[in-house]
Write a structure and sequence with these properties.
The protein is 86% helix and 0% strand. It is an all-alpha fold.
Length: 152
Amino acid sequence: MSNFLLGAAIVLSGGLVGVEFCVAVFINPILDRLPNNGGLSARADGARLLGRIMPFWYVATVVSAGAATALLWTTASGVLAGIATALFAATIVLAVTVLVPINNRVGRWSHGEHPEDWREQVRRWDRWHYLRVALVIVGFVLLTASALIPAG
């Protein structure tokens, strides 16, 4: 059972890494280069869509990693999985306290109706998002490493 939960956590966190990395490194920079504030509408659409999906994905990652950690706790794998789980939980705290409030504002904007400082607000979100990406990458690496430690 612990192998199944650890595998599920690795798959879920690997997907998170992929999505969050792509948003940070590819999607948002491309959107920001669109002419005439074209990226604003796309960011708003992305904020609404991902804002509905990602909370479930993050919670599923934390729950599966936490369950694997509980089953492996007395092993070296359990320690690494526990650190990874703490990092994933920290990303939820970061999201709820910093990223979600900005994301909710961005989701309400349109090409015609947005604040003057909208670029600064999305840049602030981007900076905090880079931290989130780093946390999920480290969590994913630790979780994967925990699966590679021989049992016993």
